[in-house]
Write a structure and sequence with these properties.
63% helix; 124 residues; 2 domains; mainly alpha; single chain; Helix Hairpins
Length: 124
C-alpha cells in the first residue's frame, strides 16, 4: 500500500491545546489512560444514541438534518478530543499508528479478495 509522504493526520496543535486546557484547570490529575478511555467510550455512546433508531438512509444525512446536525458535530468533536488527549497522555503518535494500521489492513483485506465484501478478513 502506497501512502503519501505528508501526514495523514496532524493533531499536534490540538494535543497541545488540550494539554493547556487540562493544565489550566488542574485536570491532568484526572486524565489517566483508564479515565480517558472510559470518557471516550461514553462519548462514543452518546454519538451512537443519536443514530440508534435511524434508518440507513436517515443516518447518511444526520449531520445535515436540523434536528440532529448540532448533536452529531458536538459528539464527533468530543470523541476526537478524548481520542487525541488519550493518545497524547499515552505518547502515541496517531499519524504513525494510522499509517501502520492502514498497511496492516491492506494486507488483511487485499482488494482482489475484499472488494465489495463485508466479511471479516479471516472469512474472505
Amino acid at each position: 500500500m502506497s501512502l503519501p509522504d505528508k501526514p495523514l493526520i496532524n493533531v499536534e496543535a490540538l494535543g497541545e491545546a488540550l494539554e493547556t486546557f487540562a493544565r489550566e484547570r488542574d485536570w491532568a490529575q484526572f486524565h489517566s489512560p483508564k479515565n480517558l478511555v472510559m470518557a471516550l467510550s461514553g462519548e462514543v455512546g452518546e454519538l451512537t444514541e443519536i443514530f440508534q433508531w435511524m434508518s440507513e438512509a436517515q443516518s447518511h444525512t444526520a449531520a445535515q438534518q436540523p434536528e440532529t446536525a448540532q448533536a452529531v458535530k458536538e459528539e464527533l468533536a468530543d470523541v476526537l478530543l478524548y481520542l487525541v488527549r488519550l493518545s497524547s497522555v499515552l505518547g502515541v503518535d496517531l499519524d504513525k499508528a494510522a499509517r501502520e494500521k492502514l498497511v496492516v489492513n491492506a494486507a488483511k483485506y487485499p482488494v482482489e479478495k475484499a472488494k465489495g465484501s463485508s466479511k471479516k478478513y479471516d472469512k474472505i
